[in-house]
Specification:
- The N terminus is likely disordered.
- The chain is mainly alpha-helical.
- Helix 2 packs across helix 4 and helix 5 crosses helix 14.
- It has 16 helices and no strands.
Length: about 375
């Protein structure tokens, strides 16, 4: 695999330049803090992680119980009767939640309660990932409002949307065919102890107490808010990366190799459990010139695969083997088309997407039209009748 063409600038960034991202002014005291302070920070992060996992499982169980009742009412009220409707529903919910992972978890909970079928679950999860990519464009737009160049701040969001669509749409077709034709059987998998023991001993009593106190119609809302809170706690558990941009500077030429960026995107998303977070990191890095837009393309492809890890866990917890199979099929289909593009026609694939991105961003009317299309398409899918 040929390396990317290096940027034309040869001068290494100064120390002051490397202090923009990551806020090292805040990180350096932490690194030089006393030993007991570092231990206290570690204990805090472990506490955030454990509390976040407990909140995650609790929220899933509340969603499952709420979906058994009012989830069906919501689906019936919106008249979500086809896979296209479910695709648009998941897409729009990701806009509302500003994240795709909670929406994918909601889809799994709806499936576990019998509110939607397997194919609708599959397309709703796909919609959640398409909607999550829009968050990167939103972050880039905020950077543009803060005075940064639009081409640098918004382009990475457009590229994230285009790359996700280019991989997920054929993966959607392949996965739909595999599931509808029943070529893939239900994979035997279960959430065994100690996870099952924790659910039985801790989560189930809490769910019973909350269900007895709260009105039934609020369980869906509380469960959705609980998911957002759980992901916020898990984000707090992630340690800061010391050195900010200097970490990327040490990577040297690896930043210009597709495979290295592909693995980096996959690794960071596995760590953060959020494709919205890992892709949004590209906006400041691109604005500061640390990562070029063409370098970000394989990073996005890798992130779009490992973003399914938390959904696989959610499927095992509330949906069992059938839900796990649905999520795994989608993950493998996305991985198949990503690796196909990376191995056999990456240069053509990158040239086409970067050219389309430049065409959209270079004109304000075209950019506005693209943003409008990203809003109209999921609404149309939600109400289409075929």
């Amino acid at each position: 695999m040929e390396p990317f063409k290096k940027p034309t600038q040869t001068a290494a960034p100064t120390v002051r330049e490397t202090k923009v991202i990551g806020q090292p002014e805040l990180l350096e005291p932490a690194l030089s803090a006393p030993h007991h302070t570092r231990w206290r920070m570690m204990i805090y992060r472990v506490g955030y992680a454990l509390t976040g996992l407990l909140a995650f499982v609790l929220a899933l169980e509340l969603l499952k119980r709420g979906a058994a009742g009012y989830g069906r009412i919501l689906i019936a009220w919106l008249d979500i009767s086809s896979t296209a409707n479910a695709l648009g529903f998941g897409w729009l919910l990701a806009y509302i939640f500003l994240s795709g992972s909670p929406v994918a978890a909601v889809a799994v909970a709806f499936f576990a309660s019998g509110t939607i079928d397997g194919l609708q679950t599959f397309t709703m999860i796909t919609g959640s990932r398409l909607g999550a990519s829009f968050i990167v464009l939103f972050v880039g737009f905020l950077y543009h409002l803060r005075g940064h160049r639009r081409a640098a701040s918004v382009s990475i969001g457009v590229l994230a949307l285009l790359t996700t669509a280019a991989i997920y749409l054929p993966a959607l077709a392949l996965g739909y065919w595999l599931l509808s034709s029943q070529l893939v059987g239900v994979i035997s998998a279960s959430a065994t102890s100690p996870l099952s023991s924790v659910i039985d001993l801790v989560v189930d009593p809490l769910v019973a107490i909350l269900a007895s106190i709260l009105p039934e119609w609020t369980l869906l809302i509380v469960g959705a808010l609980g998911l957002l809170g759980a992901f916020s706690l898990l984000d707090r558990a992630i340690p800061d990366i010391p050195g900010g941009q200097s970490v990327f500077g040490k990577a040297g030429q690896l930043l210009y190799r597709p495979w290295a960026m592909f693995l980096l995107g996959a690794a960071i998303t596995s760590f953060t459990l959020s494709v919205s977070v890992s892709l949004s990191m590209l906006v400041p890095l691109t604005v500061r010139g640390i990562i070029r837009r063409e370098n970000a393309l394989p990073y996005i492809m890798g992130a779009n695969i490992t973003t399914f890890i938390d959904t696989l866990v959610a499927a095992l917890i509330v949906g069992g083997a059938a839900a796990f199979t649905i999520v795994l099929v989608e993950m493998l289909c996305v991985a198949f088309f990503s690796l196909l593009a990376l191995l056999f026609f990456y240069r053509l694939f990158a040239h086409a997407l970067l050219g389309l991105q430049e065409f959209i961003v270079s004109s304000t009317p075209r950019l506005i039209g693209f943003l409008g299309l990203m809003l109209i398409v999921p609404i149309w899918l939600l109400f289409v009748r075929w």
